[in-house]
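Usage

Read records sequentially. Each one opens with the input sequence:
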Amino acid sequence: MLINFKFEIDEESYEFCCEIVNKMIELFYISHEEATSRVNSQWEGQIIKGYECMVFHEDEEYWDNAIYYTDDSYWWMPEMQDRLKIKAYNPEKGRY
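and closes with the structure output:
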C-alpha cells in the first residue's frame, strides 16, 4: 500500500517512515489511517531526506513512542509505564 506522506522525502526516508507507520499499528493496535495521520502531523511541511537529517538519529521504536505519547509521558522510563498519556487524535481532521 502506497502511503501519501505530507512532507518531502526521498526513497530511504519513505521506507523509514513506512516502518514507523507499520510498527505503530503493531504496537498500539491503531488503524493504518491513524498511524499515517500521526506521522504526517509530526513532520508535515518538513524535509525528511538523507542520513544527516535529525529523524535518522533515532530508530523507529523511538519515533513510534514519541509520536504516539505526549511529551510529558516519559515513555522511555520503566517506572512511568502505568502513567503514559496518548496524544489525542481527531479522525475527522486526520490529526492529533
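Summary fields computed downstream for this record:
- The longest helix spans residues 11-28.
- The longest strand covers residues 8-9.
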